[in-house]
Design a protein that fits this description.
It is built from 3 helices and no strands. It is an all-alpha fold and about 90 residues long.
Length: about 90
Amino acid sequence: MSPLSPAKRWSGTLAGAAAGLGVLAVLSALSLPMAVAVVVGGPAGDLLESMIKRGAQVKDAGHWLPGSGGLLDRIDSLLVALAVLLVLS
C-alpha cells in the first residue's frame, strides 16, 4: 500500500473501512463526516504513525504492549479519524 509501511495491504484497509462503517451503521451513527473520518482518517493515522516510527528507527512505539507496536499502534487510527471528524463538523 505504501513504502511507509510495506506490510500494509489494500485488502486490510478496505476490510477495516467496511468494518468501521458497519459498526457506525449498527450504532446508528453513520453520517458522511463519520464515514469520511473512518475511511480516510483511520488509514492516514496508521501510515502517519508508521512514518514517525520509521523516522525514529524503532519497531515499537512503547513497551506497554510489547510485540504489538506499543500503545500508539492501538490508537493511531483513532487519533487522526477524530481530527478529520472535528475538521468536517
